[in-house]
Amino acid sequence: MGKQFSRFQYNAPVTLTYAFISLAVLVMGIATKGITTQLLFSNYRTSFLDPLQYIRLFTHVIGHANWEHYSGNFLIILLLGPMLEEKYGSKNVFQMILITAFITGILNMLLFDTALLGASGIVFMMILLSSFANAEDGRIPLTLIIVAIIFIGKEVVNGMFIEDNISQITHIIGGLCGGVFGYWKNKRRIYDNSSI
């Protein structure tokens, strides 16, 4: 039995840990009828004197409203995350998640009166970042342009014409973060290789 279990590999520690923590938070939210989700994992405008406000700038990407919300985000994260961790390193992917969470959280808090909940900004960051996976010599991959047009363009159109409970601006900002991270990491890789 022990030998069979040892064949499993925790191949993407950031991605898997993120998925498991978010699942535990979802279960806790269901068990508390959403109280913990709203208190600790929903980013919304409150007093700057509220110490939880600063925690929620990061934790909003962990909480989810329900199973459909969670599974919709984490199916993509679990598909892209391992590849991104292999390409950029787990530490870098973790930092990218934190930076994207902070940027989307602070912009939502400062500019909007709505609550922000879920990992969709991280999903869009990973989608655009993955488009840089096979970039070479400072060139911009055509796949990146097509992905940006399809995913970000759709969010711009939806934000203009559809009223729903989805934060299209978070998707757009998350995607822009992924594009910036990918461009920066690709440029840095080229610089590091040329100085050898």
Automatic annotation (TrEMBL):
EC number: 3.4.21.105
SUPFAM superfamilies in the cross-refs: Rhomboid-like
Membrane topology per record: Multi-pass membrane protein
UniProtKB keywords: Hydrolase, Membrane, Protease, Transmembrane, Transmembrane helix
UniProt-listed Gene3D superfamilies: Rhomboid-like
Keyword Heme: no
Domain Peptidase S54 rhomboid: 53-183
GO cellular component: membrane
Enzyme category, top tier: hydrolase
Principal place of residence: membrane
Lineage: Bacteria, Bacillati, Bacillota, Clostridia, Eubacteriales
GO annotation terms (biological process): proteolysis
InterPro entries, sorted: Peptidase_S54_rhomboid_dom, Rhomboid-like_sf
PANTHER family: RHOMBOID-LIKE PROTEIN 11, CHLOROPLASTIC-RELATED (PTHR43066:SF5), RHOMBOID-RELATED PROTEIN (PTHR43066)
Molecular function, one GO term: serine-type endopeptidase activity
Subcellular locations according to the entry: Membrane
Protein name stated in the entry: Rhomboid protease GlpG
Entry's transmembrane regions: 12-41, 93-111, 117-135, 142-162, 168-184
Superkingdom classification of source: Bacteria
